[in-house]
Write a structure and sequence with these properties.
Blueprint lengths: L2 E5 L4 H12 L3 E6 L11 E4 L5 H8 L4 E4 L11 H15 L2 E5 L25 H15 L7 E5 L17 E3 L15 H13 L6 E6 L1
Parallel strand pairs: 1-2, 1-4, 2-3, 4-5, 5-6, 6-8
Antiparallel strand pairs: 7-8
């Protein structure tokens, strides 16, 4: 049985990953800085932060895969990138696969084009977060070969404000934002969680970033 720890398991992306992994009978640990009010049966819940070495060690302990679903917002601004870098080194030493959930801002608008975060419609207040997660991706790409990692960018429209419904389908891309025939770029939380757990169960993007959308 695959053992998965999700750091940031109480957040939007993290909770969907936890739920999907639990439904598929993976051994799941959810780590979050606060208490989780609505807990899923069979999931182990830990209180902890990616910024703390002892908590990172607890997340790695016994895990086959650790997924980071933490955003650099609020008091986490500027702290996520160094924390993921520390975790990456620790994961490599422990032989644990590392997954990171990023944002759409570091994707390309089109092949050979500008980054999504550099587009005129990208919200200024979100750029620092997008830039920091882009830095996380840069660090992973420069990591030693012994680190087994993947990085997942959601589409442009993704979050609790656009939760959507489970469809059981999605498209997979690389470094370019996926859009539909009408220019839309979206996916539900449930299908995003399924895409991440699909990668955990059947790795297809070792040492690379991918994106998913309808």
């Amino acid at each position: 049985m695959t053992r998965v720890t999700v750091i940031g398991g109480s957040g939007y992306a993290g909770s969907h990953i936890v739920e999907t992994a639990a439904v598929r009978s993976l051994e799941v640990t959810s780590m979050a800085r606060g208490e989780v009010a609505e807990q899923i049966g069979g999931v182990r819940y830990l209180k902890g932060s990616i910024t703390e070495a002892a908590d990172r060690a607890a997340a790695l302990d016994g895990a086959d895969v650790v997924v980071v679903a933490v955003s650099p917002r609020g008091d986490m601004v500027g702290r996520v990138r160094p924390a993921v870098a520390a975790l990456a080194a620790e994961a490599a030493a422990a032989g644990v696969r590392l997954g990171v959930i990023g944002g759409a801002g570091s994707l390309l608008q089109r092949e050979g084009g500008e980054l999504v975060m550099d587009g005129p419609d990208f919200a200024e207040e979100v750029k620092p977060e997008a830039s920091e997660m882009g830095g996380v991706l840069d660090d992973l790409r420069a990591a030693p070969a012994e680190l087994d990692w993947f990085f997942v960018s959601p589409p442009a429209t993704f979050g609790a404000w656009a939760a959507g419904e489970y469809r059981g389908e999605y498209r997979v891309g690389g470094d370019v934002l996926l859009t539909d025939a009408d220019g839309g770029s979206e996916i539900s939380g449930a299908d995003f969680g399924a895409a991440v757990v699909d990668e955990i169960e059947e790795p297809k993007h070792r040492g690379s970033r991918f994106t998913v959308a309808y």
